[in-house]
Specification:
It is a single chain. The protein is of the alpha/beta class and 299 residues long. Helix content is 39%, strand content 18%. The protein has a domain of 207 residues: 3-Layer(aba) Sandwich (Rossmann fold), CATH 3.40.50.720. The strands form 4 sheets. It has a 7-stranded parallel sheet with strand order 3-2-1-4-5-6-11, with helices on both faces. Strands 7-10 form a two-stranded parallel sheet. It has a two-stranded parallel ribbon with strand order 8-13. Helix 1 crosses helix 7, helix 4 runs parallel beside helix 5 and helix 6 runs parallel beside helix 8. The chain starts with a strand and ends with a helix. The relative contact order is 0.14. The mean pLDDT is 94.
Length: 299
């Protein structure tokens, strides 16, 4: 089989592309960023806003994993037009190119950000979206456009990612999660700032599980454009997370506390039931096991 992976120089897209290649598939990965040396797939520089190039790389593909995005809430406020162009117009290009190629199935990254600040935990896909940022609005727009393209015959599957972590996540990136930042600072014995009181909770998903969820979703993509949470359905407080990482690494944390950041959600937890019901998949990696994998650098 041949697959196109957008955002393949990034964290999740790179893991998907390498996994597909290891399974013997032909993989074309595209990204605006440079690729690492000796990647086990074809890497091409391409912006999803470039429709003609996108169509060229999509030719002959059996499926698309669309992970390319500017996945930063702060940047979506600072540069609403630029992030809209990538996140919304770029995704529209992916859908249109896939439709033009005869309806190539698309698995795409949505986000738990569409739920906003919602106390109805664990969050189900039936909850009314309450986006609190342009980035969240972009992801909701992707889901709506998937439905519109589905009406024209395009199969797709949208995954609302919760907090993804694992080896290969760049702690210096504006898109990186709190776990990669904590890991970098503990490893280099740098001080760590917790914004707020550390009582915030998050539903973290190991990247290896995320990849398997995406692969399962490809088999279930259809013109009804299903959307499902990709989450574990349990949570850990940020302060407890840091304690656990320090315990595993044997490094005590030098912690300071800052003001809670505007727009931060205090409690977040998803319901994984729909993804399991549709694809048969639920994440298998526990928090401690996933952190040990991250710290050791193995997938």
């Amino acid at each position: 089989m041949k697959y196109l992976v957008t955002g393949a120089a990034g964290f999740i897209g790179g893991h998907i592309a390498r996994t597909l290649a290891a399974q013997g598939h032909q993989v074309c990965g595209i990204d605006v960023r440079p690729f690492a040396k000796n990647i086990p797939f074809e890497g091409r520089k391409c912006n999803v806003e470039d429709f003609e190039s996108l169509k060229q790389y999509l030719a002959g593909c059996d499926g698309i994993y669309h992970m390319a995005a500017i996945a930063s809430v702060p940047l979506s406020f600072e540069d609403p037009e630029g992030t809209f162009a990538t996140n919304v117009l770029g995704t529209r290009n992916v859908f249109q190119a896939a439709l033009d190629q005869g309806g190539v199935p698309v698995v795409y990254a949505s986000s738990a950000a569409v739920y906003g600040d919602n106390d109805a935990l664990p969050l189900k896909e039936t909850e009314e979206p309450k986006p609190m940022s342009p980035y969240a609005e972009h992801k909701l727009a992707n889901e709506k456009e998937a439905k519109a393209f589905g009406a024209q015959g395009l199969p797709s599957f949208g995954l609302r990612f919760f907090n993804i972590y694992g080896p290969g996540q760049d702690p210096s990136s504006p898109y990186s999660g709190v776990i990669s930042i904590f890991h970098d600072r503990l490893q280099n014995r740098k001080p760590i700032t917790i914004y707020g009181d550390g009582g915030q909770t998050r539903d973290f998903v190991y990247v290896g599980d995320t990849v398997q969820g995406c692969l399962r979703a490809m088999n279930c993509a259809d013109a009804s454009a299903p959307v499902a949470n990709l989450c574990r359905g349990d949570t850990i407080m940020i302060s407890e997370l840091l304690d656990l990482m320090g315990e595993i690494m044997g490094e005590p944390a030098d912690i300071s506390y800052g003001a809670e950041r505007s727009g931060d959600i205090r409690y977040s937890c998803g319901d994984p039931a729909r993804l399991k019901g549709v694809t048969g998949f639920t994440p298998q990696t526990g928090m401690k096991e996933g952190l040990k994998n991250l710290i050791s650098g193995r997938l």
